[in-house]
Amino acid sequence: MAELESEEIGGDDLFPGVPSSGSPASYILPEPDPADNFDADTNWSEQVTGNEAPGGGSSFSRDEGNAGLYGYVPYNMVRTAVRDMVGYCWADQGPPWQLHRVNPWQHPDFPWMRCQSVHVQPVNPCGGPSQADPTTNVIWTNSAATTAPQWSSAATAAVRPKRQINYTRAACTLSFKPFPYVFLEDADMQAYGLKEYYRNCDRFSSIDPALTTLMASATPFMTFLEGLDNSTPGKPLTSFTPPQMFQGDLYELLCQTDLVLAWYGVPLDFVCDPYLPSKILACVGTVNINDQWLNVFPKGTLLLNAPHIRKSIQNVWTTPNTIGFTVDVFFPFKFFNPTAGVMLDYQDGRTSSLTQPVFNGHNLFPLGTTGRYYSAARKNKNTQQGDPTKPLISFSDFDTMFAHVKS
User: Fold this and answer.
1) The 3-state secondary structure of 182-247, one letter per residue
2) By Cβ atoms counted within 10 A, which residue in 88, 169, 250, 346 is the most buried?
3) Considering its fold, how many domains does the chain have in total?
4) The model's pTM
5) What confidence tens digit (pLDDT) does each residue in 255-292 have?
6) What burial class does residue 301 get, using C-beta atoms within 10 Å of its C-beta: 0-12 exposed, 13-18 middle, 19+ buried?
7) In which domain, by residue range, is 59 found?
8) What is the rounded end-to-end Cα distance, in angstroms, of the chain?
């Protein structure tokens, strides 16, 4: 069996300045012995109790549901069995820098449900202990005849109880539930060239339209429609000659929609190098350069706000010397896509040459005199004209956020 040396899993590699203790850190799980690998086709035995399945059945409501599955696995295979049941993931440590997933089990009767947790109960002690002395004829896990799951490092044995009862089987209770996203196998991702946002992504976990107000100082654009004629005291007027205009703040009501895309169960080292998600941070405060991103959103219509990243430990072994952390990433977007003024002008017959705007979405701004939205950009200091290469809000390739941070 392959063994992990203490220097491979010590503090120097992962946390500079922290000495290795000679035993595995909790964030690197020990590799199972190859003899303990679980095969669902041959090592799973479903429980049967009388005339009905154990566990009390399944339950469903309009927006929730849960189901169970009950069976036995050989006790030495319990760690790899749990890994396969709840699923796991890991990231390449070199080219081609891909993300790999083994998806959770599907329920045999309700295949839209996936395994979310497993409860393990060891049963059938080896040697058959007597009631008078439960330790009689028990084969302990530190003996040569043990069938318990083995640890791959000699250093690990020092932190285990040496007098633990050994069992032949484990009774496993699997809990299933529906998930709000699609599961896809690695082979499908590669065969169809799909981006990672096609799987394990909830599009969208929240959808919140909001009416907001845009306020900006503007040149005179408002005109009084009535007032008093100063030349004839007390005489009302319905118009002024010349028009009486005044300067003020420009207020425009905008309908923008907040969207949160949630990306679940991503290996930490796929997103962060080593601690910061640099590819994601590079896109914060920018709009999508990708036209029809996610097959929906036109170029420039999604603005990325600061994301939230939630880290958790992956309680199963994945690959050698890999930190067992995963993250859930929550991307808050703001969608804005008003009808461009040049398109309305063309429909009205005001122009025959300009039919499409330079920008869409967040780089359109209202013209005070008409309220229609037109492209605006920073001024070119040489030409004193707006420079279409310098929009107020920059563009980014949002696909890069779902690629390996080192790719």
Assistant:
1) CCCCHHHHHHHCCCHHHCCEEEEEEEEEEEEEEEEEEEEEEECCCEECCCCCCCEECCCCCCCEEE
2) 88
3) 2
4) 0.80
5) 999 999 999 999 999 999 888 999 999 999 999 999 99
6) buried
7) 28-179
8) 32
